[in-house]
Design brief:
The protein is of the alpha/beta class and about 450 residues long. The chain is about 35% helix and about 20% strand. The protein has 15 helices and 15 strands. The structure holds nicotinamide-adenine-dinucleotide.
């Protein structure tokens, strides 16, 4: 079967390092034949790496989509605010679409895009990559097999990590809600998507709390200048001191987030970027408006509840999950891929006479010592087929490759006139995005918000 051909709009971090990189590793599956990118340096690096001829090179998405259809599929990896134009035009042009999250930055745009796409009949996949990870697929299978009985509560956490939060939500592109999207949508629409997928029911209401508590002027160390590079007296004690992060601790790290600071990752270029650009600013003297910690509670039919906690104040940069069921519990951590399952009964076949002597303290601390308990390793690279290729990447814990494998396969089906379906299509994105918009209304109003669709 010939490779699926792709046109890419936005050859930035996601476009080049995830989708572009996938095509370089799996050329027999997908190939980029056209690209739109206004940044000349990014454009040159991308067209060189993918050997795209001049007739496949465009400055903007408008220029690319003014042409007759150039490929099977269009990948939209533009900034959050630049979604509706390429998505709706691409759908009308007859491309199969893979759209970065967030699918739409506002609810009005979501409504308009949804209507236009439905009219066009286009095949649209949304990049909710976590559903394609071995970790969350295993969790979903455990729920669907009834391993812990009836699901009662899911508690998901997203530990953004102090350095990542400072990079993206204090100094960087997502620091202002009025210029981009709420942090909940930008960072955690994946988590909202996971929760609705795992529970598999439409949510009925949502409430949320959270605010910007720390990254404000009033918490600036005495005498801290506007830029870290201007002789900050708190350099030694501040975890967010930019030269330590980008010049020292990330010294041997020439990819994101350093490439967001400067495309030239030499020490001299990094220092210059910190002296002149946004990433050298003191985190207490920025124009950021995103909350730095937030909790969301989502109610589902039958009393099932999901809670999500996100925030800046963690060392780790990962997700954890705990599922409480009527007959057991599951807990897991995405970065290690470790999942522990515990059922509220001894393993079948173990008789009363086999029970270990119960130590009173142990019972008090960790419950019945003979509950059936086991662990599963479900990190990236645990799929023997993929591991055998030696080409897989662990981007988003294997979710980036998982999404692309499935998208490419479905585009082949679609080209052949057979029904194509992805686990994360428009209707799925609508569900998670509507919860995010409602949660933000709740956070500002202090009221629980009902969900009708
Ligand atoms: N799925 C995920 O897990 C995930 C992870 C990170 C980011 N994202 C999303 O991916 C999107 C891209 O993020 P990024 O980090 O790659 O940002 P980025 O800024 O690195 O890349 C965006 C690119 O779009 C280009 N662009 C701007 N205007 C354009 C136009 N008119 N036509 C064509 N290209 C244009 C920019 O020059 C830039 O190179 C964002 O919406 C972001 O929220 C998704």
């Amino acid at each position: 079967m010939s490779a699926v051909t792709l046109s890419l709009v936005g050859a930035g971090h996601r476009g080049a390092e995830s989708y572009g990189d996938y095509c370089l590793r799996f050329p027999e599956r997908a190939r980029v034949v056209a690209v739109a990118e206004p940044d000349p340096v990014r454009m040159q690096q991308f067209v060189d790496a993918h050997r795209i001829p001049p007739e496949g090179q465009f400055r903007t998405w408008e220029d690319l989509l003014a042409q007759p259809r150039l490929s099977d599929a269009l990948v939209v990896a533009t900034p959050d605010q630049l979604r509706d134009g390429p998505v709706v035009t691409g759908a009308r042009k007859g491309y199969a679409l893979l759209v970065e999250k967030p699918f739409a930055p506002t609810e009005d745009q979501l409504d308009a895009m949804s209507a236009a796409i439905t009219d066009s009949g286009a095949f649209v996949g949304v990049a909710h990559v976590l559903r394609y990870t071995p970790f969350y697929r295993t969790v979903k299978d455990l729920i669907d097999q009834g391993t812990v009985g009836r699901l009662i509560h899911i508690d998901q956490t997203e530990d953004i990590g102090y350095w990542h939060f400072a990079h993206s939500y204090v100094r960087g592109n997502w620091r202002r809600q009025d210029e981009t999207t709420p942090m909940l949508l930008a960072k955690s629409c994946h988590d909202l998507d996971l929760l609705t997928w795992l529970i598999d029911e439409p949510a009925t209401s949502v409430s949320s709390a959270g605010s910007l508590t720390h990254f404000t002027r009033q918490h600036a160390p005495a005498g801290a200048p506007a830029r870290c590079t201007d002789g900050c007296p708190a350099a030694e004690s501040c975890p967010f001191f930019a030269p330590r992060l980008y010049l020292d601790r990330m010294k041997n790290h020439p990819i994101w987030p350093v490439t967001a600071v400067t495309r030239d990752t030499s020490p001299e270029a990094r220092l210059r970027a910190l002296q002149e650009g946004p990433y050298g600013r003191c985190v207490y003297h920025c124009d950021n408006t995103q909350p730095d910690h937030q909790v969301v509670t989502i109610n589902f039919p039958g009393g099932v509840i999901a809670t999500l906690r996100i925030g800046a104040f963690t060392g780790s940069n990962t997700r954890t999950i705990r599922l409480l069921g009527s007959h057991g519990e599951i807990s897991g951590r995405l970065d290690t891929g470790e999942i522990e399952v515990r059922r509220f009964l001894p393993a079948a076949g173990s008789g009363v006479q086999d029970w270990p002597r119960w130590d009173r303290d142990a019972l008090g601390r960790s419950g019945m010592p003979d509950d059936e308990t086991w662990t599963i390793s479900a990190g990236p690279g645990t799929d023997p087929d993929e591991a055998a290729t030696g080409r897989e990447s662990d981007g988003h814990a294997g979710g980036d490759d998982g999404l692309m494998h499935e998208f490419v396969e479905q585009v082949q089906q679609w080209k052949a006139g057979r029904g194509a379906a992805l686990p994360t299509e428009l209707r799925d994105a609508e569900r998670s995005h509507r919860i995010a918009f409602a949660a933000e209304r709740s956070r500002h109003s202090g009221q629980t918000v009902g969900l009708t669709r």
